[in-house]
Specification:
CATH topology of the largest domain: Serine Threonine Protein Phosphatase 5, Tetratricopeptide repeat
Number of helices: 20
Order of helices and strands: HHHHHHHHHHHHHHHHHHHH
Strand content: under 5%
CATH class of the largest domain: Mainly Alpha
Mean pLDDT: 80
Shape: globular
Distance between the termini: 59 Å
């Protein structure tokens, strides 16, 4: 029979050590929130677990293996249940992170006594950081960060706040869902992506934000385009134009219409959108509630050039398509590392490949594809696989006509698809 324990922060941490679990898995093992368990982890913590936590800790100890129980009681007997004893003082990075986590916990407690304005400011800054990091950060890290922001926003929505804070909560919630939607699509889960977009639109309507309505419709159009429904994608993007609150948002929607219509075989609509896109002033920075977050939630001139290249490729304007796609690649390579969308860049290279195939330049096509075919697995995304399948179909058509090097390109593309493995992979594409 397990002895009765009156749980303290120190004894709880002793059980955590005996189970050989880090803080978050330990919290999940108990069925408690990480922030609750984090209260116990501070060196010398005098926090006493509440009644529910007392019961859950007792159950966890009762269900533990004999070895875990022995380690726990040995630690308690030796008085090493103090969490300070488990800190590796040589691990400066770990201590820095632990200090930040504890400060956040303290701030969370303080926020119950004060306004949520400071927390909302932090979350806005955090979503800006995630949006910028999205284009060059592994998807798993992006999703982890989004989950943390989601927990914080969910906590705020459950507490009363002033009307002006309510609007900010709705805006940030919509932005969070938009980022989650793109992450879900890049991870190969379109159903979750559409659920996130539905939620984003609901928050946008509650916030009465045209900028968010426009962006949500544009994102929905992208999901439809990559789900082999390009005609519907163009229609959804057109719906978004009535809400476009900035030139940047307007550019994005026209670019999506151009590429989606071209993919659907509607050349007149695609060319009309391209013409309207060219008439817009690319230097107009006009921002709105969404584009001010930057990164994935922006549409700079380089991305516009990339979309134009993609649309022209689909329209069969191969020389112009190659020019635009090469320009986009050059701009990505020359731009700041934290603004470089490796997904867009890879897809632009495949647009060059298709454009060169269309001009009968098989050697040049193979050279354009090589950087993509040699990508590290963490830099591959679903959209790259989809496009490579299309390029392979082009190469096989030429191989059947006995074009020199077409068979070699076909082999390289096939090898890539065979070795790529299942998605999700790591880097999302800011433009896909």
């Amino acid at each position: 029979m397990t002895m009765t324990v009156r749980w303290t922060a120190q004894s709880a941490m002793a059980l955590k050590s005996a189970l050989n679990l880090s803080l978050v898995p330990f919290a999940e093992h108990l069925g408690l929130s990480a922030s609750t368990v984090n209260h116990w982890s501070a060196p010398g913590s005098a926090v006493t677990p509440g009644r529910e936590a007392q019961e859950l800790l007792t159950v966890a100890l009762e269900k533990a293996t004999g070895e875990v129980k022995n380690q726990f009681w040995a630690a308690m007997a030796a008085g090493t249940g103090n969490p300070a004893a488990t800190v590796d003082h040589r691990d400066l990075g770990g201590q820095i992170r632990d200090g930040a986590a504890q400060s956040m916990t303290m701030a969370d407690e303080a926020s119950r006594l004060a306004s949520s304005d400071e927390q909302l400011t932090y979350l806005r800054d955090e979503l800006c950081r995630i949006a910028v990091a999205y284009v060059h950060t592994p998807l798993s890290e992006v999703v982890d960060d989004l989950h943390e922001a989601q927990k914080a926003l969910a906590a705020i929505t459950r507490t009363p706040h002033r009307p002006r804070s309510t609007h900010e909560v709705m805006v940030l919630s919509s932005v969070l869902c938009l980022l989650f939607a793109h992450a879900s699509q890049n991870a190969g889960d379109p159903r979750s992506a559409l659920q996130q977009l539905r939620s984003a639109t609901t928050f946008a309507n509650v916030a009465d934000s045209d900028a968010l309505r426009a962006w949500a419709r544009g994102s929905a159009a992208l999901m439809l385009e990559w789900s082999s429904r390009p005609g519907e994608a163009a229609t959804r993007a057109r719906e978004g134009l009535q809400f476009a609150a900035s030139t940047e948002s307007h550019r994005r929607l026209l670019a999506i219409i151009a590429r989606s219509a071209a993919r659907a075989g509607d050349a007149p609509a695609a060319r009309d959108a391209l013409a309207r896109l060219s008439d817009l002033n690319p230097a107009d920075p006009g921002g709105d509630d969404v584009v001010q977050f930057g990164g994935l939630l922006g549409f700079p001139e380089t991305k516009q050039t990339y979309y134009q290249g993609g649309a022209l490729t689909l329209l069969g304007d191969h020389p112009e398509a190659e020019i635009h796609s090469l320009r986009a690649i050059g701009d990505y390579e020359a731009g700041p590392a934290d603004e470089r969308s490796y997904g867009d860049e890879a897809l632009a290279r495949l647009d060059v490949t298709r454009a060169r195939l269309g001009q009968g330049n098989i050697t040049g096509a193979l050279a354009a594809a090589e950087p993509v075919l040699g990508l590290h697995p963490q830099l591959r995304i679903q959209q790259i696989d989809n496009t490579i399948s299309l390029v392979r179909a082009d190469a096989r058509t030429l191989a059947r006509r006995r074009h020199r090097d077409a068979a070699q390109l076909d082999d390289r593309l096939t090898s890539y698809l065979v070795s790529a493995g299942p998605v999700p992979r790591a880097l999302p594409s800011a433009g896909a």
